[in-house]
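FIELD: query
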Amino acid sequence: MPVTPSETTAVPRPPSAPLPDFCSLPVLFALLVVGALTVTLMWLAPGGSGNFRDYCIAVLFTSWLAVLLTVLLCKLRAGMQRLAGLLPYAAVWLLLVATVGISAGVLGWMDQSLLVGITPSPTSRFVRDSMIATGLLGAGLLRYFFVVAQWQVRVAAAAQAQVAALQARIRPHFLFNSMNAVAALIRVDPDAAERTVENLAELFRAALGSDPESVGTLGEELTLVDRYLDIESLRLGDRLRVERHIDVPSELPMPRLLLQPLVENAIRHGVQPNRGGGTIHLAGRRLPGGVEIVIANPVADGAPTPGTGHGLRNVRERVRFHYGERASVRVETVDDRFIVTVFLPESANARTDRR
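FIELD: result
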C-alpha cells in the first residue's frame, strides 16, 4: 500500500556543531600567530630562500589574509551556523581555502603584471601551494576550535545542571518549620501568617524558576534575603540579628538566588546552634575592578552543625559560570566569625545568553 506524504515520518535534523565567535580578538590572534609561525618555519627550513625581504612580504601577506578571513567569518558565521551537523565547519574550511586561493591568484597576477618579483613563478603553482597549506593548517585549526567549542558546551551544561539543582533545592526542614510557624500564627497574628505565606511564595518562585540562567539585580536579591530573614525571625525571634552595610548600587546585575543560600548557611551553622543566637553581617563595597560582598556569622558553640557543603559549592560554580575565572568566593574564619567573601568583577557582566 503506498504511503502518502502526510504519513511519512520526518527525519530529525542533526544538531548543528557550534562555531566559535569569529568576531572575537582571540580568533584573530590565533590566525595571525598561525600564519606568522608557518611563514617563519618555511623561511627557516632547509632549502628556503633565506631572503629577509621575502620573509617580511610573506608575513605581511598572511597578516592581511588573517584580517580578511576574520572579517568574512564574522559576517558569514550566522548563515553557516544554520547548517546541520558538521557542515558549518566544512563551510568554514571551504571559505578559508577559497579565500586564500583567490587572494594568492590576485597577488600573483598583479606581481606578474608589475614585474615586482615577490611571488614565485608560475602563479598557478603559488596558488596551488597556498591552498594546500591553508587546507592542512585550516583543518588543524578548525579541529582545535571544534574541541574547544565542545568543551565549552559541556562546561555550560554542567554549570546549568548545578544551577538547576540549586534552584530546585530548599531544605525540607525549612519548609516544615515555616509551615508550622504559619499554622501557629493563623489565630494569634493573621497578618503575620499572611505575610509569611507571601514570603514563602516569593522564595519558591525564585528557587523553582524555569530559567536557571536568569540574571536579576542586587536589589532584587536583597529583597529575597529580607523575605527569608522575616520567615526565620518568626522561629528564632531575638536570637537572630542582622547588620547591613551595603555601599553598592542596587542595580548591580547578579544571578538570582546567589546570596540567599549563603544567608541560610549563616543561620543554620552560625546563629541557630548558639543559645544566645548571633548577628549576621551583610556588607558590600566597591573595589578596583569589581564589587565585594561579605556575609559573616558567628562560629557555632561546641561541635559544628554537619552539612554537605552543596550550597557553598554551587554558589562558587554559579559565580564562575556567570563571571568567569576573575570572580571568586573566599571562605575564612577570623576572630570566631565565619566569613564568606564574594568578589564579582565589574568588567565581566553577568552572562545572560549562553544558549
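FIELD: remark
Confidence is low (pLDDT under 50) at residues 5-11.
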